[in-house]
Design brief:
Elements: H1 7-10, H2 13-18, E1 19-21, H3 26-36, H4 76-79, H5 95-99, E2 108-113, E3 119-122, H6 123-128, E4 133-140, E5 145-155, H7 156-163, E6 171-176, E7 196-200, H8 201-205, E8 210-215, E9 218-219, E10 229-231, E11 244-250, H9 257-261, E12 285-288, E13 295-296, H10 304-307
Parallel strand pairs: 2-11, 5-12
Antiparallel strand pairs: 1-4, 2-3, 4-5, 5-8, 6-7, 6-11, 8-9, 8-10, 12-13
Bound molecules: ligand MTE.
């Protein structure tokens, strides 16, 4: 007799609940919107419509209102109007307006370095070649605010498996588009552009390390890092680099834009850690956007069960 095992029985429940296969493509989006409307979020949109093929606001649906801890999703309008994207402006409320009209087509992402099989993917390849899943994750900024965001995307490991890192590859380095004409903040001499981030290879292979192509069932808007960004839910938000054009496998620890700008404030690891304060912000508590008051910050942003093993034996005060 055949025994049916549901995926919730073979995957820990919280992981299962935070990831739902989400078929996109606009036809499929209409179907899922109908199916999911009973429990889906109805959210208003104040965001700009720079992407021509995004769904209309009334089609925005997600499969649940909460993440696996029962925390409510942050509204679409907050997620798309309160942003950090220094290539446009340092004003969080100003990013969406400045980013309106930022063209993300054509867009290519070069994946190379210490790999056997370097590849360049168009944004269409990235949206169609890899199964897009809805992944609801908390985003915790080092400034002490947080959101819960229903991303769409897939594990970074899927791209890495395609290019086959060599045995010399130890880290993954990411780079944002450099184009000061389109990204006016890059004319500022305060930072060494382009924005660069990095992960250790084993961190990058963890299934939670996500390449996002969308949120709330739509392609990413420019202010959220269109068309393709990283999401590392257990680390401070600055690790989640936006508008990526290059992914490189390297043998030495990449120096990120923030490590270069303020090495005493920003380390390579940047794991969410309530016990290690940033010189300017205590990390013990956080304000969830849309809520009053503050809540306790969770180690690894609540994802310790999935990722703590990566740091066994490491001093996380030293490796901040
Ligand atoms: N990526 C680039 N290229 N430039 C940036 O300024 N800001 C980071 C991160 N990725 C940033 C970036 C910071 S500090 C945070 S908190 C998140 O993006 C914010 O993502 P969101 O605006 O989509 O919420």
């Amino acid at each position: 007799m055949a025994i049916k095992i549901s995926s919730s029985e073979i995957t820990p429940e919280h992981v299962y609940l935070s990831r739902r296969k989400f078929m996109i493509g606009i036809g499929a989006l209409a179907t899922s919107a109908a199916v999911l409307s009973a429990c889906g979020n109805q959210v208003g949109s104040t965001a700009s419509s720079a992407n021509s093929n995004e769904a209309a606001p009334e089609d925005i649906k997600v499969s649940t209102n909460t993440d696996e801890l029962g925390d409510e999703l942050t509204s679409f309008s907050a997620v798309t109007s309160y942003n950090n994207f220094y290539e446009f402006t340092t004003s969080k409320e100003g990013v969406a307006g400045m980013a309106e009209g930022f063209s993300t087509s054509p867009w290519e992402v070069e994946v190379g370095g210490l790999v056997n099989n370097p590849k360049t993917f168009s944004i269409d390849d990235l949206r169609t070649k890899f199964d897009q899943e809805e992944r609801i994750y908390r985003l915790r900024c080092v400034e002490g605010w947080s959101m819960v965001i229903p991303w769409m995307g897939f594990s970074l490991s899927e791209i890495l498996e395609e290019v086959e890192p060599t045995s010399q590859a130890k880290y993954v380095r990411f780079e944002t588009l450099y184009d000061p004409d389109r990204l006016p903040g890059q004319s500022s001499r305060w930072y060494d552009w382009p924005y660069v981030e990095g992960l250790r290879l084993d961190e990058a292979m963890n299934p939670l390390a996500t390449m996002a192509t969308g949120l709330y069932g739509k392609h990413l808007l420019p202010q959220n890092g269109a068309p393709f960004r990283l999401v590392v839910p257990w680390k401070y938000g600055f690790k989640s680099i936006k508008s990526i054009v290059k992914i490189e496998l390297v043998d030495t620890m990449p120096v990120s834009l923030w490590m270069d700008a303020a090495p005493n404030e920003y380390g390579f690891y940047a794991n969410v850690n309530p016990e290690v304060p940033h010189p300017r912000w205590s990390q013990a508590t956080e304000r969830r956007i849309g809520e009053f008051g503050r809540r306790d910050t969770l180690p690894f942003n609540g994802y310790g069960e999935e990722v703590a093993y990566l740091y066994d034996g490491m001093d996380l005060r030293e490796n901040f």
